[in-house]
Structure formats: C-alpha cells, structure tokens
Amino acid sequence: MSGGNYNLITNYIRRYPRKLPPCSSSGNHSANHISDIHVLSPMKKLDLVGGRRECCDVIYKAEMNITEIKLRDCMLDEIIP
Length: 81
What we know:
The chain has a four-stranded mixed β-sheet, with no helix packed on it. A hairpin with a 4-residue loop joins strand 3 and strand 4 (66-73). The radius of gyration is 15 Å and the shape is globular. It contains no helices and four strands. By secondary structure, it is mostly beta strands. Helix content is 0%, strand content 38%.
C-alpha cells in the first residue's frame, strides 16, 4: 500500500481483542475498533540535519478500521527543542 510519494514501511495487525475497559470521559478515545496500523514514509530520505526531526500525520480510515501514520519532515513551528 502506498499513497502519493509514500511507501508502506511497517504494518501492524491486531491479533486478538485487548479486553480493556473503555477510556474515561477525559477526552481520550478508545482504539479498540482499529484492526490495522500502517506506517508510511516518504520515498526520499528524511533530512535530519539542523535539528529537524520526523513528524507525522495520523489518519483514521473508519470505513476500513485502519489508521495510517504518515512520517514527514517537521514544519518549522513543529520542532521540539
């Protein structure tokens, strides 16, 4: 699976239900419905020179119970000191 200039580098598949209680109402959401996690990375090598780190976008695809994590270069205001 790839999207745009991204390649799938890792795929995690849930083997069995976690059997954990639901999250509290503090703003957290349960991930029990997610069955697959795909980690995607740009085809180019990420530039980590000058303090830049990898950031990511997390995209939930409800119709397929899949979450994609797309690694990307951090934007200037995203860099953590």
